[in-house]
Amino acid sequence: MMENRKPFELRKVLIVYNFAQVLFSAWLFYESCIGGWLNGYNIRCEPVDYSYSPGALRVARGCWWYYISKFTEFFDTFFFVMRKRYDQVSTLHVIHHGIMPCSVWWGVKFTPGGHSSFFGFLNTFVHIIMYTYYMLAAMGPKVQKYLWWKKYLTVLQMIQFVLVMVHSFQLFFRNDCNYPIGFAYFIGAHAAMFYFLFSDFYKQAYLKREQKVSLYER
Fold first, then answer.
1. Domain limits at 152?
2. Is there a domain that residue 105 lies in?
3. What residues act catalytically?
């Protein structure tokens, strides 16, 4: 559709969209904190509460909205294409945004809360910072010159996946946690895959670029 079109100018749209995503992520993070992770959830083992208690339903509702957020994130790709920024539709981007809606569906369907929701707890916090960065970047050169911390955002994302791996894989050494071990494998494997994808992106985007600059300066 964009082959014979000029790139769209979407600066105002991007600012509004990213601000909305910041608010959405902040609300999801708040719900994950109040629903469990800063309100009684056990970091070592947290079974899913399948009851109809207000607390369990609140957590399930938060998981459902987290699932919906995986679809609102598709707009990132749409905007890249509309602006003809095809370089940003990378392998990492396509795999990350393509696989998450399918993966999160299983969590909402079978484990709406409990141990593996730790992923969403961390992920929504990271997304607050990430979409804040995108919003500021959309404001133009006057603001972009202050966004020197982009690579540290990637580092934060990698730290997130390491924490999720450790948190998920610890259940392999426990026999007393009433949580489906298959979902621990599932979440841990996703975190491992995303860690290596983001790590490769970091090497390509920052380390190799810095090496080229260093060689040029010599």
1. 11-217
2. yes
3. 96
